[in-house]
Amino acid sequence: MRFGFLCKERGGARGRVAIVGAGPAGLAAAGYLACQGYEVDVYDKLPYPGGMMMFVIPSFRIPRDSIVEGVEDLEKRLSVKFVLKTKVFEGDDRHDEGDDFVERRVPLSKLVEEYDVVLITTGTWRSRSMGIEGENALGVVPALEYIYRWWLYEAKLTNEKPFIAKRVVVIGGGLAAIDAAEVALKRGAEEVFLVYRRTIREAPAGEYEIRRLVREGVNWIELAQPKRIVVENNVARGVEFVRMRLGEPDESGRPRPVPIPGSEFVIEADLVVPAIGEEPTPPMKSEVLGIKLDKRGRIVVDHEYRTGNEKVFAAGDVVTGPSMVGRATGSGLRAARAIDRFLRARLRTG
């Protein structure tokens, strides 16, 4: 993955840009801006650049060696500097998934003061809550955390081996659910259930991925929604579901799942993995420095990716919510172009 594919060598010096977040959006922006001649420093809380591409998305989707090669190209050829194990956050800190390796904390305001522009690309490192009884019990592990923990162990970044469950219930129909079910199956689970509230036709992961898992041994159950986690002594023992039928389309355009009264049933499990999506993790809890958040916690930007602070831009999933790598990469590139236009205009006007 050549993030600096637009040039053979770095351009002349133009200014300093800080990028907060080394995922696809941040790396794409770093490559573009370094090609234009900017001095680029990329801050990230993890021990390696790459974000979820490196730590969560399976290597058969995005080879990790390819990410490493792209990062090394940014460092060696384009002089991009990576400041790792560093969490940028303004105000009282918030714990997000993936914070294990943080050794240093830097206020966002410090970067805004020291750099010509700051680009925020911090992604979505917080799992969405199901909002049901028992979801805080032991044995309930969100897909993001579950896959991340296995990667850390296999990469020898931790000696703590994740729990190998016999019966695993994964809740969701997106790629995170697919990946979690596959990890469970390959790490020794005897039975894996993948449960989705709509049908296979509406599943975001697509029929191909789900049917592939079914061939590998995963049990697919559709039109069922979790009602509560069955808990004994604060440990998850299963999930009570209610069967659903499809109603009129909702705001997404897909048919709305409607509960069928009296259709409850329980799947026993010693590990429950909710995979219902992630929430944006901007480097602040509420509006600061003129940077606003919408009701979903996403950073508000204009068509030029600029926030309410003229020196701060934002791109990627922290702006759009969870998306595919390609969309995040494109967002980072467009934001980098907007930053270049902004800094060139400022230079012309003195």
CATH fold type of the largest domain: FAD/NAD(P)-binding domain
Number of strands: 17
User: Averaged pLDDT, please?
Assistant: 95
- How many discrete domains? 2
Q: What series of H and E elements makes up the topology?
A: EHEHHEEEHEEHEHEHEEEEEEEEHH
- At CATH level 2, the architecture of the largest domain is 3-Layer(bba) Sandwich
Helix content: 25-40%
Uncertain stretches of 5 or more adjacent residues:
none
Quote the beta fraction: 15-25%
- Taking all Cα atoms into account, the compactness measure Rg is 22 Å
**Assembly context of the chains:** single chain
Say which CATH homologous superfamily of the largest domain is assigned: FAD/NAD(P)-binding domain
Main sheet summary: 5 strands, parallel
Shape: elongated
- List the strand order in the largest sheet: 3-2-1-6-17
Kindly name the structural category: alpha/beta
**Count of separate DSSP helical elements:** 9
